[in-house]
Amino acid sequence: MVAVPGRALHYVFKIGDRGKNAFFFRTILGMKVYRHEEFKKGCEAECNGPYVNRWSKTIIGYGPESSNFVFELTYNYGVKSYEMGNDFGGVTIYSTDILAKAAEHSYPVSKQGDRNVLTSPDGYKFYVVVSAPVASSDPVQQVELKVSNLAASRKYWQELLKMNKIEESEESLLLSYGKTQVSLRLTLQKQKLDRAKAYGRIAFEIPGSAQQALFEAVQAAGGTVLKPLIQLETPGKATVSVIILADPDGHEICFVDKEGFTELSQVDPDAAKQLDKFIGKDPFQDKAFL
Q: What is the largest CA-CA distance in the chain?
């Protein structure tokens, strides 16, 4: 393959309480809900993890999916928590409002070196840089994953998946598919890497015509293909084609066809109301957050 014309779309978090997370992402981080979807059974591509039960997907961020990197919050009914590993580093956000919102609502903020850290209800870290994002750029600037071998990760992400190198040191590698896109930081994890049960997934879009070539390139390189090219249906919405890969450390990567995703990801003006409705009807929901 000469190039992978990718665009970073979202990172998938498994969550155990939609009420607590709605408060964190909307009230503290200041994000908006752009889609909410309910499913009666598990996803063929395991978007909700290895679960076959009823589940939901909430798309939340600082702008629509057509222009912004967002987060996909997957909720499995009846699953209250997930064992955290050490594979996820965190999300870096540029904002002049978040720390004030956290103080207003007495939401804890800690320090990691000179970085302000907010931890989501499920334990995911968000690093807040007190600065407005550059004009026209996304407040979400970076997603960090931990890796066990930086050379192997460089070979996979940069040479095989054709991401562009922004910077590199002995302990980390910063990559992106475009200057205006969210960057991916791969940081060397000195302890044994453990993905546990809360592991997530990063998603990119590419033209449908490029998916087969990517699949063949990964296969030829001996890479792990978790799900070959399959069709995913969303009730009442567009069908998309996806390939699910895993890097040398098992980090899951989804490549979805741009054409189908463009249709699927249309903003639903009632998404926030739908989320609130299903939170209210959920028998597993902590009633303190209704």
A: 54
Tokens of 203: 């998603």
Contacts of 283 (CB under 8 A, 6+ apart): none
The pLDDT tens digits for 44-84 are 999 999 999 999 999 999 999 999 999 999 999 999 999 99
> Do strands 201-206 and 252-257 pair parallel, antiparallel, or not at all (unpaired)?
parallel
The token pair that represents 15 in the structure block: 């969550």
Name the pTM for this structure.
0.97
Question: Given strand 110-112, what is the order of strands in its sheet?
Answer: 110-112, 115-119, 125-129, 88-94, 140-147, 183-188, 172-176, 164-168
